[in-house]
Design brief:
The complex is a heterodimer of chains A (523) and B (539). Chain A is mainly α and 523 residues long. Helices cover 60% and strands 5% of the residues of chain A. Chain A is built from 26 helices and seven strands. Chain A has helices at residues 2-21, 48-62, 70-76, 94-98, 100-108, 112-137, 142-154, 158-162, 168-184, 190-204, 208-211, 213-220, 240-243, 246-263, 295-302, 320-328, 335-338, 341-346, 348-354, 360-376, 392-408, 413-435, 443-453, 461-469, 476-482, 488-516, and strands at 80-83, 86-89, 224-228, 232-238, 275-276, 278-279, 285-286. In chain A, helix 10 (190-204) packs parallel to helix 14 (246-263). In chain B, strand 5 and strand 6 form a beta hairpin. Chain B has helices at residues 12-24, 26-47, 55-68, 85-90, 97-101, 104-127, 132-143, 146-151, 158-178, 181-195, 200-220, 222-236, 238-251, 256-259, 264-273, 283-298, 301-314, 321-327, 332-342, 368-381, 386-402, 407-413, 422-431, 443-453, 467-474, 476-479, 493-498, and strands at 5-11, 438-441, 460-461, 480-485, 507-512, 517-521. Chain B has 539 residues and is mainly alpha-helical. A five-stranded mixed beta sheet of chain B has the order 3-2-4-6-5. Classes of the chains: A mainly alpha (523), B mainly alpha (539).
């Protein structure tokens, strides 16, 4: 009972911290104001992934249409689609639908944008819960499991994307929930929900097809059983299992319907729709204000119908070596700089391997798919972004593995000290990202900017530190209630201290819990 | 509920028989599969013309052809610098025009080497007691690589080196397990063949010799080790000794292949002077450049798995130490290439890392069988993750094939390994084919022109034609109806020797192309021209 109270209190505290970090400004954007800088470059919808999804939500709720009106189309550039004479969304649609309740509820209070973002924050918190549940189900110590969830949320770039509008936490939620269902229930009926979640994941973000693949393959194994008897081997296939596929039918039908309504083709993916980078005064596609010399690119931007995109071209094996460097080691986005605590988590794989856990294959498979897919991606940086956002699902799984490392070494004071140092650094870095901006250009673009403007530009989280030192924070609470009272730097330190206090409390509990309750020792 | 379950039973005896059939005939299955893939790929690259894109491939074919046809045919046409084995093997078939001009004469040995190496990967892993799944994974990794499939369809020398080296190390592995002298001699023989193919083989020979000493010393002591060492090196070094002898006899300088005007050393000196030999004396850059070449050839993820597999292999307590010592020879291509870059013996451009183009990036393929073996071993030892490893390998390989990711083809098509000689070659084919008279040309610079022109080798007077060359470069107007050379380029031997001769004034420039110029003897002087061979059999 006491433990439950502590756990619930912890999650309330986490929710509170997320609320304090949530980005936004008061007000409901309208067609007349949505393109103002206070909403876009200076505001919470600073980058096109945020804007593209919010644009679709706005268009569905306010204009009852999948086609963007001109102001919304301008708002969505440079990630705007163009099909059959209409401006459309380039992004998979479900994120825009998921945030609709938050939008509508928030709009009632004059906080439409904040309400939308709050849905993502809530889902991020659910991810913490799921990481804890999964870790415990696999045999990790309870406190270690809680710590693992907190590490995921506050010590990785997941923090910055829990307070803005991206698909990563929703994708992660679907992956974790599917994993939990597979662990919790071993019957065929549970597979209905597995396919349902898989079906939902595709219109959230198309690459989820690959990220969910290990789970899908694992689940499919339940259709078959092999019984080795004395003289023969018996293979069985459970036909009833096929009925569970119905779970995935509805979301897929919705996806096909959306594609048909938006693009005129149910099988057309948003990413393959011709893109528009800028719109001129007459509402026609035009060239953006950057130097483009390739004639084919110019022709395609001026006449989107000439563009010929293919899904396969987005992922190139030739990009792997650079992609892996960027995702793991580079100062730009690398795990080493943004969340080195994840490297500690990876050792959990060895512990699970020794524990002969069959689910390890699935966990490592999800990490492997995530890493390889986005290392092959033409833009492993994630555009202008904070940290390696594409690896957020992998961070969640690594956090599960981390729970085993914490469980195994909770008696070792030196390990706990080392872990504390590393996690302090990780929390400090990711908190500055969460409350400032995701708008970090890759190093290559920074160097180009420096040449253009003849002024030194920062990159990586140095850019965020610079924003903070210029008293800039995009936190809704700070901007609305505390901006005149305390500086952004002070606000940052309050948040970091609060998070660290939670962590220190948990680490001490982990250590003390070991001393007083040896029967809970991890084996 | 049982009505909804489909059950199929197999008797254990049946499944054992099936497995035994498959296991006992695996050699034939692999042979058939590898051969089918090899032939199919050759036909694809023959049909799209990429099989002859490498300048070096055309040169290799020409060297083989010159041995059997030309103004001075004979073994001396094997020349220096490039080791002779590939050209000697070509001699068996290159006399046939189709075999020559299709590239099949050279590709045939690459294809046979590809099939042989695929089998060797399987049997190497079998020797290491790896499971069937691990062995087949190793073969899959080796085969499922567009760079490998492309190179095995060309008249390049990498596949022959890969086959002979892998065979040598495989026999060494067998020898250290069964102590049979026959396997040691086979190993020595294959390594000797590799020393006659590329200089990488010389490094492998040195490494293998050390392995022999160490293994024997640990087993039976120093004296026996000494004896076995001499036995191994006598055959193994034969190719090296013969090569020195060859250079001494033909070029009167045993070190001609190292320091001669056409040697890699001479080429590297020019590059160093031009400031583009960045890897020389820079170990970190040499490692980086070669690792990038490896990554691009192997699609990075298999490289990571292979290195992981190597670590697992070398730290595996269940594997005998001697097996590990022998398996270390699988790293020979990696070490050799890095050292070659460091000492300036080799040049390798990786676009974006060391220059703006590709050159010799195919050297990264030389580690392919080694990585395949290490990955097969990893699948065996990490058996709980075996299906995951295989699944992720499929995933990356699928994208590589879908995107047609083949850096060796890029090197051949757009890198420094390609030369666009079509304009010059087409001109010759159109204007010189049916007219009497010789073409004076430096083969060292323009072998690709000779090949692509489609004209018989005996039409050309080049450096290897003895008296014809001496006479033609002294009095071109008496011997050459056409001259092909890069005007004002002193590296072009024809221009260097001919441009100041009085006879050169009797020529008109009839073709000016980016690659080379073509001069034709003015009509009034054609009557003085020798148009048929006159020197008979030259020594």
């Amino acid at each position: 009972m006491k433990n439950n109270i502590i756990t619930i209190t912890l999650f309330i505290l986490c929710f509170f911290i997320l609320l304090l970090s949530l980005r936004g400004i008061a007000g409901n954007p309208t067609l007349a104001t949505i393109n103002d800088a206070k909403w876009t470059t200076d505001g919470p919808l600073e980058l096109s992934p945020d804007r593209g999804r919010f644009a679709l939500t706005y268009s569905i709720v306010e204009e009852n249409s999948f086609f963007f009106s001109l102001p919304i189309a301008r708002f969505a550039t440079p990630d705007l689609g163009y099909k059959n004479g209409h401006y459309v969304s380039l992004f998979a649609p479900f994120v825009s639908y998921v945030i609709i309740p938050g939008y509508i509820l928030g709009k009632l209070f004059g906080l439409a944008q904040v309400g939308s973002f709050a849905v993502i924050a809530f889902i991020a918190l659910l991810n913490v819960v799921l990481i804890r549940l999964i870790s415990m189900r696999l045999g990790a110590n309870k406190i270690a499991a809680t710590l693992a969830g907190l590490v995921f949320l506050f010590a990785t770039p997941a923090y910055a994307y829990a307070v803005s509008l991206y698909q990563h936490h929703i994708s992660t939620f679907l992956i974790l929930l599917t994993l939990y269902i597979l662990l919790r229930w071993k019957n065929l009926k549970s597979l209905f929900f597995v396919w349902l979640l898989f079906g939902i994941s595709l219109p959230i973000d198309n690459p989820n097809l690959f990220l969910m693949a290990p789970l899908v393959i694992y689940a499919s194994g339940r259709f078959f059983s092999i019984n080795k008897m004395k003289e023969k081997i018996n293979f069985s296939f459970h036909f009833l299992g096929v009925l569970t596929f119905l779970g995935g039918v509805l979301p897929l039908l919705f996806f096909l319907w959306f594609n048909q309504m938006s693009y005129g083709n149910p099988l057309q993916l948003g990413g393959t729709v011709a893109s528009v980078k800028a719109i001129d005064a007459n509402g026609k596609p035009t060239l953006p204000q950057v130097a483009i010399t390739d004639k084919k690119t110019i022709d395609g931007l001026l006449d989107p119908a000439k563009q010929n995109k293919s899904v396969i071209q987005f992922f190139q094996s030739r990009n792997l070596i650079n992609g892996l460097y960027e995702l793991f080691i580079s100062q730009d986005r690398g795990m080493l700089y943004f969340t080195p605590v994840m490297f500690i988590g990876m050792f959990g794989g060895i512990l699970l391997y020794r524990k002969k856990s069959s689910i390890l294959v699935v966990l490592v498979g999800i990490i492997g798919m995530n890493v390889l897919l986005y290392a092959m991606w033409g833009d492993p940086y994630g555009g202008w972004a904070f940290g390696s956002r594409y690896l957020i699902p992998a961070y969640a799984i690594i956090a599960i593995l981390l729970s085993f490392v914490l469980s195994a070494f909770r008696k070792n004071i030196w390990f706990l000290l080392f872990f504390s140092l590393v996690v302090t650094y990780s929390i400090s870095v990711n908190t500055v990202g969460a409350i400032t901006s995701n708008s970090n250009p890759p190093k290559s673009e920074v160097l180009a900017l420096e040449k253009l403007y003849h002024t030194p530009e920062t990159y990586s989280f140095d850019r965020n530190i610079q924003l903070l030192s210029h008293n800039t924070s995009k936190s809704f609470i700070w901007q609305t209630y505390f901006k005149s009272a305390i500086s952004a730097v002070t606000y940052y330190w309050i948040l970091v201290t609060s998070i660290l206090l939670i962590f220190v409390g948990q680490i001490i509990s982990l250590r003390i819990h070991t001393t007083y309750k040896p029967e809970d020792r991890y084996e | 509920m049982n009505r909804f379950i489909l059950s199929i039973s197999f008797s254990k005896t049946t499944s054992r028989r099936l497995y035994a059939f498959f296991y006992n005939n695996i050699f034939y299955f692999l042979l058939a599969g590898l051969t089918t893939i090899s032939v199919f790929c050759f036909l694809v690259y023959l049909q799209n013309g990429l099989g002859l894109s490498y300048n070096d491939a055309r040169s290799h074919l020409d060297i083989g052809r010159r041995v059997v046809e030309g103004l001075k045919p004979g073994l001396a046409q094997l020349g220096s610098v490039w080791l002779p084995l590939p050209h000697l093997l070509m001699v068996l078939t290159v006399w046939n025009d189709f075999m020559w001009h299709s590239g099949l004469s050279g590709a045939l040995q690459s294809m046979i080497s590809f099939v042989a190496t695929g089998l060797l990967v399987y049997y190497f892993l079998k020797e290491l007691q790896v499971s069937m799944l691990g062995r087949l994974t190793g073969v899959f990794v080796f085969v499922a690589n567009l760079n490998m499939l492309y190179l095995q369809s060309t008249a390049m020398t990498e596949l022959l080196l890969i086959a002979t080296s892998t065979a040598g190390v495989y026999e060494l592995l067998k020898w250290q397990r069964n102590n049979r002298l026959f396997n040691l001699l086979l190993s020595s023989f294959f390594i000797m063949l590799s020393t006659l193919n590329r200089y990488d083989g010389w490094f492998l020979f040195g490494w293998a010799s050390v392995i022999v000493v160490i293994v024997m010393w640990k087993k039976v002591g120093w004296r026996a080790a000494e004896g076995v060492f001499f036995l191994f090196t006598t055959l193994g070094a034969l190719g090296i000794v013969l090569w020195f002898l060859w250079n001494q006899l033909i070029f009167h300088d045993a070190l001609y292949f190292i320091f001669g005007p056409y040697s890699a050393h001479a080429q590297q000196q020019q590059l160093a002077q031009a400031g583009v030999l960045a890897t020389k004396k820079d170990l970190l850059l040499s490692i980086k450049v070669y690792m990038y070449a490896l990554a691009y050839n192997e699609y990075t993820f298999p490289l990571i798995l292979g290195l992981t597999g190597a670590i697992v292999l070398f730290f595996d307590k269940k594997l005998p130490l001697n097996s590990k010592i022998v398996s270390s020879a699988l790293f020979a291509p990696l070490i050799f290439n890095i050292l070659a870059l460091f000492f300036g013996f080799s040049v390798l451009f990786v676009q974006g890392i060391s220059g703006d183009t590709w050159f010799n990036v195919r050297y990264g393929i030389l580690m392919s069988p080694s990585l395949a073996i290490f990955i097969g071993y990893l699948v065996y030892r990490w058996h709980k993750l075996r299906y995951l490893i295989i699944g992720l390998l499929f995933f990356v390989t699928a994208f590589a094939f879908l995107n047609q990711d083949a850096v060796t083809i890029d090197d051949a098509r757009v890198g420094s390994s390609q030369v666009n000689v079509s304009e010059v070659a087409n001109w010759l084919n159109k204007n010189a084919k049916d007219k009497p008279g010789f073409v004076l040309i430096a083969a060292a610079s323009h072998d690709a022109v000779i090949f692509s022109s489609g004209l018989p080798m005996s039409k050309f007077i080049h450096e290897g034609t003895g008296e014809y060359w001496v006479s033609a470069t002294t009095s071109p107007d008496r011997w050459a109806r056409w001259i092909v050379m890069r005007t004002n380029d002193m590296n072009d031997q024809t221009f260097k020797l001919v441009h100041n001769t009085p006879g050169f004034k009797k020529y008109t420039l009839v073709g000016h192309y980016p690659f080379a110029d073509i001069y034709e003897l003015k009509p009034q002087y054609i009557s003085q021209l020798h148009t048929t061979p006159v020197f008979g059999h030259q020594k």
